[in-house]
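dumping these here so i dont lose them again. two proteins, back to back, each one seq then structure tokens. dont judge the mess
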Amino acid sequence: MEKEQFYYDNKIVRMFLIATVVWGIVGMTVGLMVALLFNFPNYMEGISWLSFGRLRPLHTNAVIFAFVGNSFFMGMYYSLQRLLKARMFNDTLSKIHFWGWQLIIVAAAITLPLGLTSSKEYAELEWPIDIAIAVIWVIMGINMIGTILKRRQRHIYVAIWFYLATFVTIAVLHIFNNLELPVSAFKSYSVYAGVQDALVQWWYGHNAVAFFLTTPILGLMYYFVPKAANRPVYSYRLSIVHFWSLIFIYIWAGPHHLLYTALPEWAQNLGTVFSIMLIFPSWGGMINGLLTLRGAWDKVRENPVLKFFVVAITGYGMATFEGPMLSFKTLNAIGHYTDWIVAHVHIGTLAWNGFMAAGIIYWLATKLWKTELYSKKLANAHFWIGTLGILFYAIPLYVAGFTQASMWKQFNPDGTLVYGNFLETVTQVLPMYAMRAFGGTLYLTGFILLAYNVYKTAKAGSKVEDELVEAAPLKKITTRRTAGEGWHSWLERRTILFTVLTTLAIAIGGAVEIIPLLTIDENIPKITSVKPYTPLELEGRDIYIREGCNNCHSQMIRPFRSEVERYGEYSKAGEFVYDFPFLWGSKRTGPDVHRIGGKYNNNWHFNHMLDPRSTSPGSIMPRYSWMYTDDLDTSHTQGKMEAMVKLGVPYSQSEVDKGLFLLRNQAEEIEKSLRQDPEYVRNYGESNMQDKEIMAVIAYLQRLGTDIKKGETAEN
């Protein structure tokens, strides 16, 4: 049969490669800025948009969606064309995908520091950007599937299975988790509340890790590791088992982030069972990757690309062993809310994602610019500096995590807590935070070396041009299985059926967990004393969200003796029915605040937010001075209450109509109570402080956990 000539699009690969390097350095730099705030909490004092609570989601979004996202697109656009022997389906769609994704990243970089956030972890971006993400993701999917359909290769290779699973699953996760009711151009409320929102969010959050940080990178592993080693994949059969078991099991595992919380026990147990099962397909992928290097280990000594791949796959194995272990309730009770989780996450991101990206970038640089790498010595230096950076980052945080868990749970013989002051646990781990920042500095330095190495390689090489190739077109054959054809080989040439089965595999787990929680009232017993937030408390909650306070403070007291003794009555599912969104948190840099209402007077909160060290010596919490000068924006208060009514919050029409009147009355009452402190009168005697944002924040904090009496559970 006569072969057809066509060109591979290398220019789009170059664009994504440059974006990967640039956004990688930006995301890691923001991460280092965040890490330094633990040891120097006031080094960016007074700058609201550079405070910890606003920078932390910027860092996570930058490294996940900007750095890892662009690295996936870089590798996918390169490998997909060659595996299918076809140019991308549409060059215009490729360019829209690239520029659309970069604009989304820029929008995130602007809105998150401004405090425009939904607060949901890894899904903080507000509704207009969420819509843009969905549109660009669908454009990418059309381009991918269109390329598959016009391929000149009958069977789709294992890497493409993972690309398809990534496209389908991220679309489903993103849409369902980000269902929200807009209030204004950049303010919305999740359609889910409390326990339901928590389950949907961690169904998304865990599987964002699974299907944005894992499956696409596994696809890249299956292409680039054999290419770099010049060896075939170790086992095709293991690839099949790895793929189908991984995508089916992973989707169930989200509830292990919510063990010992107010989530119903059956959902927690489902998450635990499937999380433990997850170790088998995960390690199947790791084994398949490492054993692909059989007979090529001598090359690892000489080839920096293979060095990065080996440590990356090993890091994947470590992280995917640790994840299932942390889903055991015994270990979860120790690790959750501590820095152990931060160390665990960064083994995955720094080793698995970062080193896979680095290895692919080095390998692609020589192919795109048709020259040798500028300096193998620099690449090896990057490898060793980066590896040391991972160790200096993770090991101190493991130590910090175990230290925190131990100190939080220790009792004196008389039954009192040994470390009753939460700050004692914070100051104890400050040296570990300093070592973490040093490790981050090393890791960032390695990527700066990579950027220089790639730049010099590009300067020495030739201009990136599209690559002329030829291949025979596919002959049509029957859709039925042919004689001797394996069932999976048959499935690989039935692209639409393959995609449908993939969608079913990832949909089952989410549906079984989420639908009962949304439809069966018994899962969330009602508590009659729990009432909606007042207008001022609602505004205060939104400021709390804007400042990212939930990044450091949880609002979920687990039923442990140590937590009940430290914080108060454990949290009940019915307490969160008006929380749009939920704010249970995932890390305790500061104490839990679910029962903080009434624990301190208004003056304490006023002074604490202005200067945390004045009330809590040794605190590493930043100052929020702008809350004392910025007037509370009440232009959307009535709209917010009307949105809450649509979501099921029982505000009467009279309460909505009188919302601003009720808000001002409560603010005046708080300001009046503050005047009982002579220090306040001396400093703010003539000021109109009842109109400031701090009044709303105090109102919200004083409300937390006050709706139920000790031991009260469901309606009776």
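---- next one ----
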Amino acid sequence: MSKVELYAAIRRDACTGMSNRALQTKHGVGFRTVQKALASAWPEPRKKLPQRTSKIDPYKNVIDQMLRADLDAPRKQRHTTKRIFDRLVSEHHAVGVSYQMVRAYVAQRRSEIWTESGRGPSKAFVPQSHRPGAEAEVDFGEVTIRLADEMVKCVLFSLRLSYSGKAVHRVFASGGQEAFFEGHVHAFSVLGGVPFGKVRYDNLKAAVAQVLGFSRARVETARWTAFRSHYGIEPFYCQPGKQGAHEKGGVEGDIGWFRRNHMVPIPDVASLAELNVLIDAWDLADETRRIGNRARTIGEYFAIEAPLLKMLPTEPFETGLLLTPRVDRYSQITVRTNRYSVPARLIGRRVRVMLHASELVIYDGREEVARHERLLAKAASRLELDHYLEVLIRKPGALPGATVLEQARAAGKFTPVHDEWWAAACKAHGDAAGTRALIEVLLLTRHMAHEHIVTGIATAIRAGALTADAVALEARKAADSDSSTNTSTEPVTVSGSVPTGATVTFLTERRLAHLPPDNRPLPSVAAYDQLLRHRRPAAQPSAQGDTS
């Protein structure tokens, strides 16, 4: 038992009239212990052991003098721990003092000297209260995911309401202005409104073009000014550096919590869209948790806050960035150091590009001509084989070593079935003619589904048909087979019930079944026998030698 319990037992037995000696015998203690227990119910505090001496003790005053001298020194010319250690060794000939000893003492003593000098505590935080629907915080964080079996770094956007703690997250390929805007639009649509008070931000380049001195004044980017005006956002820009991070500690902590609880283990997804669907589900599930020692859950607080948010504007805001690059001779455009392909017919012309956070859409006038998923790396390229088919049909020799063919194989659009048919066509018709036949097959993808064409190629290989027409015929058969399989063979009534015994008759079969009978006689070639030449028999005499 503890000493407090021992004292309580001694005092309880003493109340029954037991003598001092009997108490000593029963509890196995000495005379002084019994006297102390009877004098006070609370044991005396344990005496502290004298502090152990250290080899740094003779130099503590010297270290304190150096730290006090730093109070008035410029921030970039103050003593570091290494500099203090070097001075102790060189100027004071400190023997037996290690760098670890100096580092431990300086880490404790520096803040104490700062406080003793009246400069205030080194770290002090003031609790804050927030009105419902009034404030929010926004920030980006870095996350690592496994995207299509490759480890990549992405950015995590977070908008957190300060009162309820409700946060909305979104993962983007980059942290540019497009992702900044799209994150806001998604968050406001999920929350159902916009905070009517201040929204706290870092001095990120997507919003701030220039920080003016040590004040809160900022020069904002033009598109950010238009965006916040459209949604009625009142921004509050935090101080640069770590001090600014403390001014929006709610979202800073939220990103770390979300990363530890939902991004561990590392998510393995095929696309960012798939990951964002998971994130939406996680955000909804997080409404059932409590933050710290709050009395209610996030969802309960958000139910109070949601009706107080400002209504969303009726008209949408175009979050994409409009660019007008020129198509080079390789049928490519350059956007943010990366290259994307466009149809070869646009070489030399300017196109309009709408750059979004995760994709870019290319227009020729008002017609959409290409759509690419945005590249994560820099100085990379994303090419579509379909964009080069008109060029390759005139230059078939360029196809085997083309970069676009390599990317098509990696993306699964050019399968081993294509390679097998290509090799057989080249063997039968020659390299040039066989490659042109392959390109004609690839052109079919503009009108037919990829899986139907692959099925047609496989069927053509088994039949030994090495022409594009044969592949097209087999692909159409596969498409018709799929359509007949997917189409219901029984008509559905208006109420949704299927009548029993109903059948479906194809129009061609119905026409053949209702044709009138053909009573015409079978054709004959007997009349053509008159045109044949007949020879006389050899025994019959000639008519010229006859006599009467």
